[in-house]
Amino acid sequence: MRFPDLLDFAWQVVRGNRARTLLILLAMSIGVAAVVVVSSLGEGARRYVLDQFGSLGTNLLIVIPGRTATGGVSPGIVVGKTPRPLTLDDAYALLRSRAVRKIAPLIVGAGDVRWGSRIRESVVLGSTAELLDVRRMELAQGKFLPPGDPHHAEPVCVIGSTVAREIFGATQPLGEWLRIGDRRFRVIGLIARQGQSMGFNTDEVVIVPVASAEALFNTDSLFRILFEAKSREQIELAKEEAMTILAARHEGEHDVTVITQDAILATFDRILTALTLAVGGIAAISLAVAGILIMNVMLIAVSQRRREIGLLKALGASGVQVRAIFFTEAVLLALGGGAVGLVAGKLGQLLIGQLYPTIPFTAPWWAVIAAPLTAIGTAVLFSVAPARQAAKLDPVLALSRR
Prior knowledge:
By secondary structure, this protein is α+β, with helices and mostly antiparallel strands. The protein has helices at about 5-15, 20-55, 75-80, 90-95, 130-135, 160-170, 210-215, 235-250, 260-305, 305-315, 320-355, 365-380, 385-390, 395-400, and strands at about 60-65, 100-115, 120-125, 140, 155-160, 175-180, 185-190, 195, 200, 205-210, 225-230, 255-260. It folds into two domains: about 5-50 and about 265-400, no CATH class; about 85-255, no CATH class. Helix content is about 55%, strand content about 20%. The protein has a six-stranded mixed beta barrel. A hairpin with a 2-residue loop joins strand 6 and strand 7. Helix 1 packs across helix 11 (about 320-355) and helix 11 packs antiparallel against helix 13 (about 385-390). The protein is elongated and about 100 Å long.
């Protein structure tokens, strides 16, 4: 039997058993679509995280109080000690490094923001004028925090677009006075809409001078120190010199952690890639279920097609050719189910993308290739038993239905 004849024969069988064909196509397409949709969720999360950190610039480094040991646990926590606080003087000491371009000390707190009778709780950031460049932020109106002595507390603030809309409504916020806690701040700038970035929504923050934040929250301890290397090639040098400078200021103790953006990205990339592979593998289990369905259906088909198989063998078809017929049917069903599944998976991906437009959902190339190939492999694998059973039939007994 020539291959075109084999293909035509298998196609006639597939078309002639529409209920069986539709059942197998449904099972296969669900499995392939599940792999595509689930892997696109994982890949979308990975790209979203990469984009978020990428928007901060490529030379960013962060100083965190406390020395992080293996596993991400600070030794101070284990022995009941709190990490030595970072101060403004610590932050500006980093400018001694020949590899550091700018620094931005950061204090983070929360407070009630009031204007007239309107009030909302908001995240309050204390920093300096350099935060605008270090964090790659943009202004929609007005100006950012004034440069100058960071120890001088000025009653000014810059607000996010959501704060401006909910507090001021249609009123122009520039020049108005906001009350945060027991202090008043004049609004001098409005941050351009940026959304979620690095753990908080910049549209919902109020930024005040770092000295004002120290007075507002009654603390001289910094939450983080953000600083920028002069070039990508100097990131490691900036990290090493920052560790040396801070150790010298902290009585020789290496009690801070300096992390680079590349290290954060690499960690997230590994975690989310592993997660994508894991959930894709779980979704692929449904393809094994579809393969079992193919095996059961074909085993039933063998008993129903005994006379057909007996006639083929009586006309000279060998056992190999009979097995090839069953394998060809399985491949045709898998191809059809894979094609339908890819279309359904793509539609599901587009639907999720419409619901969450900020996340770049897209199926990775390996999932688009692996899903239909797995469907074909599963179909062929589980059609081995029915094909062997059909090939062993005796033509005389098959034609006589014995």
